[in-house]
Amino acid sequence: MDTTISIRRWKGPWTRRKTVEAATIGVTLLAAFWVFTATNHRTKLSLQLQGSNACPFPAIFNFGDSNSDTGCVSAVFGRLSPPNGRSFFGKPSGRYSDGRLIIDFMAEKLGLPYLNAYLDSVESNFRHGANFAASGSTIKPVPSMNPIHLSIQLSQFEQLKERTIELYNQAKRSYAQSSLPRPEDFSKALYTMDTGQNDLHAGLTSMKEEQVRTSIPSIIDHFASVVEKLYHQGARAFWIHNTGPIGCLPYFVVNYPPKPGNADQIGCVKSYNEVAQEFNKQLKDRMSQIRTKFQDALLIYVDIYSAKNSLISEAKEHGFVDPLGYCCGHHGDCWERTIVNGTEVNRDSCINPSEYISWDKIHYTEAANNWVSRRIMNGSLSDPQIPITEACHHSR
């Protein structure tokens, strides 16, 4: 809308002095008007951004294990077999699930494409981020687990960033612009982390519970060191999941059933969940310390344990059957093949995965991942309580 401000020209024997005064007043009024208009516009814009559901993170860089692996292990150690991926992708997609993972729903919420695994060389595009998560990986190196542990994932990220900047500086812009993040995106991206479950898994299956508890501080130290290194690489917005109720995974309930007095009301291994809770307590405390140390960064600690525990406790209320049941792998691993009447076929899976929380004793179904995603992304289980769609407005 056009705005016109008229300045009246005074007449009379003292016109020159009054004309200068009038002009001065007019200029002052005009300047004040535009300052008011600009300030009002910025205020409205700020309010619009704060209320927007489209937080403009240009990229996501994810670190973790099979809970968020979108194709790393499948690319490195052999493609996953059906029935993985059947519910959404219609074929194996590198995910240990019948469909999407929590990281996929997070990307959807932020208006970004699904993350390609960094180690997947076929048709991968990292323009809007990369996924370094590897199934079976741990925070600290564990000989019996995947060697692509968290420090290796950090090294992969550092290489991606370094080579991306080199390509931009070498003016190889056609490939860089279409397939790689912009150099400035590394400081504006969201850094997501979901790991630690396998550190506890490895410990609980190889040592006494008290020994696992004793190992937790060292695991947290290692995790914190990676967060700090990412900060020094320019990361400023972190979305960090704690670990879930490991004692409720059908894998443990079936293979390491609770002893008398060590089962909760659902049938989960109570002491295993207490180990996970101790891990989460120490993780939250350390993230609080880092938050104080790096006050220009946003570290959001997400209590995914509570979300998953609520789902398991109230499974039937949310349309799921037996909370400790599982869809796939009743006669072996879900992704393995077996011989039936002389013919090699895939292992069996249930008719309707959406009725189950667990896909294969360890990993969640797409339906369960979707439920948990919606529960955590609104910020109600976060510290600080910031929805994922507003996290960019709070990072500096």
From TrEMBL:
Transmembrane region(s): 20-37
Gene3D superfamilies, alphabetized: SGNH hydrolase
UniProtKB keywords: Glycoprotein, Hydrolase, Membrane, Signal, Transmembrane, Transmembrane helix
One Pfam family cited in the UniProt record for this chain: Lipase_GDSL
GO molecular function annotations of the record: hydrolase activity, acting on ester bonds
SUPFAM superfamilies: SGNH hydrolase
Family to which this protein belongs: Belongs to the 'GDSL' lipolytic enzyme family.
Protein name stated in the entry: Uncharacterized protein
Organism the protein comes from: Camellia sinensis
Higher taxonomy: Eukaryota, Viridiplantae, Streptophyta, Embryophyta, Tracheophyta
